[in-house]
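Loading example: each entry is read as two labelled lines plus one structure line.
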Amino acid sequence: MADGPLSGIVVVDLTRVLAGPYCTMVLADLGARVIKVETPKTGDDSRHIGPFIEGKSAYFMSLNRGKESIALNLKDDADRRIFEDLLARADVLVENYRPGVMEKLGYGWEALHERFPRLIYAAASGFGHTGPYKTRPAYDMVVQAMGGIMSITGQPGGPPTRVGSSIGDITAGMFAAIGVNAALYRRTASGEGMKIDVAMLDCQIAILENAIARYAATGVAPGPLGARHPSITPFAAFRAQDGYIVIAAGNNGLFERLCEVLGRPDLVQDPDFATNDLRCQNVDRLAREMEFTLGGGTVAAWMEKLEAAGVPCGPINNVEQALHDPHVRARNMVVKVDDPVTGTLEIAGNPIKLSAYADPPSRGPVPDLDGGRQAILDWLAGG
Amino acid sequence: MADGPLSGIVVVDLTRVLAGPYCTMVLADLGARVIKVETPKTGDDSRHIGPFIEGKSAYFMSLNRGKESIALNLKDDADRRIFEDLLARADVLVENYRPGVMEKLGYGWEALHERFPRLIYAAASGFGHTGPYKTRPAYDMVVQAMGGIMSITGQPGGPPTRVGSSIGDITAGMFAAIGVNAALYRRTASGEGMKIDVAMLDCQIAILENAIARYAATGVAPGPLGARHPSITPFAAFRAQDGYIVIAAGNNGLFERLCEVLGRPDLVQDPDFATNDLRCQNVDRLAREMEFTLGGGTVAAWMEKLEAAGVPCGPINNVEQALHDPHVRARNMVVKVDDPVTGTLEIAGNPIKLSAYADPPSRGPVPDLDGGRQAILDWLAGG
């Protein structure tokens, strides 16, 4: 277990696939002990979802390192007793079943709260535990589609474009983690747990950001903008000689510095580009003017000059380049998991850097299905 | 102020634009009192970023409702005394300056921690407070580009595509909020605050999800996939008669049900589609077969049949449709802010639904620059 602000906290983890496991991974990285309760024989669905390394799911590994596993059949009396012993010792229960499943098992919030008043119960689901769609099944892409983010992602006039990672699941896991931590804080005063109900679709609305403000201001639903900021210009990907470079000149001062670097004082003096509002109105002409000049140099050459001038810019890295970036490495954002089957696997680190705790360069092992059974039973028996 | 798990917590908020204000908005929605300390005369940059309604930034409004504002010049002795009085009363300080700015003001973490040992200090910045790029300026699009998510978002072979909302800022705000809550919990035992250092670039690595596992398994950096899941098939946007529909049949059982709805038992029996792995290998042919049938009906008609069969699916809503969806409304994910200048503005609600607290349908007013000065000074004087 990691040392961290949640050291001493025990999380019973009924989650599968992504949203829930992402939440409990964040809690584990903050020092909580996470006991993953899995279905006997098959376990977490994501154990069977690729990519595989030596037959083992790297997807499962990346989300479940440092957790413990016990296989329990929650319809079997003996296993239910073990599960309830776990709950009696736990601070937090996290699940991402469809609404109603926990009630059918006899573990709905009301029943749990009566029996385990200090237990915090976090549920992450596609549509949440209330509302007309609550029983509908959902996956990331469904909530990305319904929640509006796909309508503002992609090229103007182009085909539907999903955010390339499962932001529907991940944001639900993150908001659930915020809720769990807030509930832990509150419990120190109130002595009582609470239920946290997070819906993936809700989280998509919560991250629409200024697309909502744009709709409110104009009455028109915004569309996709490729790689351009909706209301700041120039703030986009621009074509240089050998690839694209992102330049984000978010205010007049930065725009002036950018034009100096480009050797284009005419752009600063051009009345069409005098303010951010005017630059937004004339965004296409400004991009053409900039690319006319940027085309004369490489991404690396422009990066060096723009950085020296303090103009925010960056290359468009692929995943390999991002993971090997010296800054990303220096920040310990690529950590290792040692595994007897796959060998060392590199995965994402913890972005919450805390002064009070070390940020270890490796994470605990990936649990085999039911691999923690004996240790967990011994712990339960021990007191 | 909202009633919530952070009721009684005072946050001094030096943040500007998006990442930091998003963090303190989440804290405010959890019940914290957020006192926004702004630069005299100009205030938060986002007050001057569109879209505007009646001259007022709807962007600023959506992120800062329910906060209080006081304008302080942190280089002026009298204002510094007020600021330090605030810190003496505060639980949390959040800022998103570039690293080094707080030190220059004499408010670096070491100095703050010595003087205010219980104060929790959260910094959200582009690249964090350590590492070779720490002093570089950053904006959302820069970290989206450098962190790899742009390389996996968009159409195969197409131009660079940014995630349509500022996920670089928003995830940094969310991880900072997780850190603040965890630190509040820990402080109840330790009596001490800690520093939370969150970098936008780090957060982009943290949300790459299975793109990292795919790279680890294959050694090849994954590219963009349009609107298709990388390792589950069929799980994409498909063209129907009058538009696109997302269908996410994540396992064999769902695939069989989907084929039943389509009236295409031949697809289930096709050896090319017998397992998820095989379906991934033959993804293009399966999409063609499905669209051949889907083209014969409307999105709404297919939605009805697929829902009845329990196959996860959804329309691709634009922002207007998403905000008016009856489920989104039932979940109180669109809340109101009343403003004397703009009238009522609809903004995103809080996705963290807590059993112990009501989820009010409106939020507190948007502060005018320095609008809370007298009340804040009176509060400081009062004890």
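The first strand of chain A starts at residue 10 and ends at 13.
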